[in-house]
Automatic annotation (TrEMBL):
Taxonomic source organism: Cicer arietinum
Any one GO MF annotation of this record: ATP binding
GO cellular component labels: cytoplasm
Similarity annotation: Belongs to the UMP kinase family.
Domain of life: Eukaryota
Domain Aspartate/glutamate/uridylate kinase: 93-302
Protein name per the record: UMP kinase
Gene name for this UniProt entry: LOC101495896
CDD domains, alphabetized: AAK_UMPK-PyrH-Ec
GO biological process entries: 'de novo' CTP biosynthetic process; UDP biosynthetic process
Amino acid sequence: MAISIPLFSLSSLSLSSSSSSSLYPSKLHSPSRTSTLGTSYCNSTSHINLSIRSSYSGNGSSPDAFNSSEIPSMSPFSLSMNESNKPSFKWRRVLLKVSGEALAGDQAQNIDPKITMAIAREVAAVTRLGIEVALVVGGGNIFRGATWAGCSGLERSSADYIGMLATVMNAIFLQATMESIGIPTRVQTAFRMSEVAEPYIRRRAVRHLEKGRVVIFAAGTGNPFFTTDTAAALRCAEINAEVVLKATNVDGVYEDDPKRNPQARLLDTLTYQEVTSKDLSVMDMTAITLCQENNIPVVVFNLNKPGNIEKAIKGERVGTLIGATWNSTVSTA
């Protein structure tokens, strides 16, 4: 038996959005069967149309009669900050090296909470400006492997591993201090200690920095016979940081030992060759060589003077600059 199917005339179909429901029989277009995506799209489209109409309804013309050329052109970057309004800094990503001895303060205890809080506050001040900060912390305030090697049969390798554990203790203390004032922080260790810190993964560390988190690298390089200065130079090269900021207990690098010679002059800038040829006790030779090969400047400054950390991170003239000049090009953060 033949079944006759009624045909819809094309002239009865309307392409306007107001009569789009006439394309389908009413029984098949019940509200209960309308998809959420379709509803939200229609609602958002109607909202856009209404907002455009209302913005041009006050000129005395019909809302449908406005000229498309009158619509202001909006750049997708029109809401972003003007580049000229951004503050300029010498470096955008820095690695701060804090020695364990500096954390001890007046040596009355292993860690001075006043020192860690001062570091946290100054790091917080620059991270809010968009500068990415990573830290490498030493462990000499708790245990120095090179000093204890040979005592009671302790081998140098074992002593260095104990010293690496000391750096983890300092890193966890620094992390707690920074997070107490609202700085998001991650600790990454060179060997696995998954219960207390993340393992060091270069890509993950860079991602943390891009998200505005401070990354503290602990446990040195994970290998004995290497200092935390070498770890600082290595991590700086790996995460593409632009400078190593070495925080110490002195104002910078002197031409002579200021304790023995009060007339010793503070050096403003140095080359890598001058550090090695004059055997200046700035960093160990492995760290200096690594910085030289990767064109990483080093700033040596006094941690104990308030504001020095913030100045050093911003690239202001403080302490001694090795491997570069102070009047180099300033980058926009």
